[in-house]
Amino acid sequence: MAIDLDLTEADVVVLKNLFQDIDKNKEHTPQNSLTDRTCEKEPHDQEAIERLKAWNDPKSLNFKPTVFVTWDDKDIHPFLNQWLVRPYARLATGIVRHPVDVVFLTHILLYLFVNLPSAIWLFCNFTYIHGVLHVAFTFWCTGSFTLMMHNHIHNNGVLSKDWAWLDLTFPYVLEPLMGHTWDSYYYHHVKHHHVEGNGPEDLSSTIRYQRDDLFNFLHYWARFFFFIWLDLPLYFLRKNKPNLAVKSCLSEVASLAFMYYMTFHVNTKAAVFTLIIPFILLRLGLMVGNWGQHALVDEIEPDSDFRSSITLIDVPSNRFCFNDGYHTAHHLNPRRHWRDQPLHFLQSKDAYKEGRALVFHNIDYLMMTIKLLQKDYMHLAKCLVPIGDQIGMTQQEIADMLRTKTRRFTEEEIQAKFKQGPAPASSKPHRWSLKAAFSKAANRIPDALAMSPPRVEAEIVRKDQ
C-alpha cells in the first residue's frame, strides 16, 4: 500500500502505524497473532502516540498549530514562515479558543474579506463571469467552512471569550453565502443526528435504504432537500421538545424567506449565484457525505458506533475538513477536538479492532458514495486498511464482506437489532407525518441476502450530545 504524499502529517503517522501492524502480523504465527499482543502498546504505537501528543501540546518544542489547510508548516518557505506566518500565528493564538486552531481565524478572515465583498459587489454590479468565479470559489471553500461550523456548533464557538462578539455574529453573516440556513446545522446535527446516531429515529438515517442503489440515494436526498424544513420540527414535536421544534422551523423558514426576498425583490441574478446555487450544492453535498459516512452498517450490531460509521485516512476529508474522516471517533465523542482525532484513533486502536471497525485510505466520502452506487466493491476493498481479524482476508473476501454492510434493514430487523427498540406509542408519527409516508415507500425496496459475522461485544459507550 502506498502513502499519498498530500496526506496531513498526522494521517501519515497513523497510516504508517497501521501498515506496521500489517507487516508485524505477517511475521507472527497464529498462536502469536496480533490479537494476542494487544494487552500493551507496541513500541511503534507508543512512538506514534507521543509524536501526535507533542504536535498538539503548546508546551512542547514540537508543537505545531494549524494555520492553513492547504499547506503544512514544512511546505512554507522559511523566510515567509519566520517573518509572516509565525508572527501571525502568535497573534492569532490570543484570538482563537485553542492554540492549535489558528486556521479557524484564517478562514473567518478569508470569507469575510473575499466571499462577503464579492457577494456585495455582485448585487451592486452583476456580471456572469464574476458570478461563475464566485460560485467556483464558494464551492471550493464550502467543505472547510462547513466543518469549521461543525466544530463551532459542537463546542459553542471557536474563538476566545474576548472575541465572543465575532464568534456569535460571523455565522449569521456567512452561512447564507456558503449554502447554509441560519442555525439549521446546529438543530439537525447536534440536537438530532448525534442524539439518534443513524438509528431508527434519525431523519438522515441510512438503515431503511439499500445503500448501493441510486434510486434509494435519490429518495434519501429528495426527502432531506424538499421536506427537512417540516420533517425536523415534527421530529422535535414527537420527542416532546416544542421549543426546538419552533426554533428549527423558524430558522429554516426565515432563511428561505431571506433567499426569496433577495431573489425576487433585490437582484435575481446576484441572488442565484450567491445564495441559491450554494444552497443547492451544499444540500446535495451534505447528503452525499452523510451517505458515505453511514452507508456501511453492520447487519448484526447496527447500533454500534464502530459498525455504523467509518474512518477515512485521506486528503480532502482530513486536510481540508479538519479530520472529518475520523467519523467513528467523532461519534464516540462528538466534543473531542478535531486535532485529537488521530491521537484517539491510535490510543483506542485495540477497541477499533475488537469492534471490527472499517478504515479506508485514498478515498473520500464523495468517492465512497459514488463507488457504492456503482457497486464497485473491489475498489473499496483495495482502499480498505485491514485491522484486527481483517488482516489476512483476500480482496474478494473483503469485497463480499463490505457488500453485506449495505443491505436495507426491514422494520422487524430494526426493532430487534436496535437497543432502543420500537418507539413508544405516544411518540409514534401521526398519520399525516412525512416520516411514516417515506418509511412505507422505503419498505417496498426488496431485501438483499446478508452474511453475518460473529457478534463482537466490546464497544466504547457513545458519548452523545
From TrEMBL:
Superkingdom classification of source: Eukaryota
Family annotation (InterPro entries): FA_desaturase_dom (IPR005804)
Segments traversing the membrane: 102-124, 131-153, 218-237
Domain Fatty acid desaturase: from-to ranges: 135-359
Keywords per UniProt: Membrane, Transmembrane, Transmembrane helix
PANTHER family: FATTY ACID DESATURASE DOMAIN-CONTAINING PROTEIN-RELATED (PTHR36459:SF1), ORF (PTHR36459)
Protein name: Fatty acid desaturase domain-containing protein
Source species of the chain: Zasmidium cellare
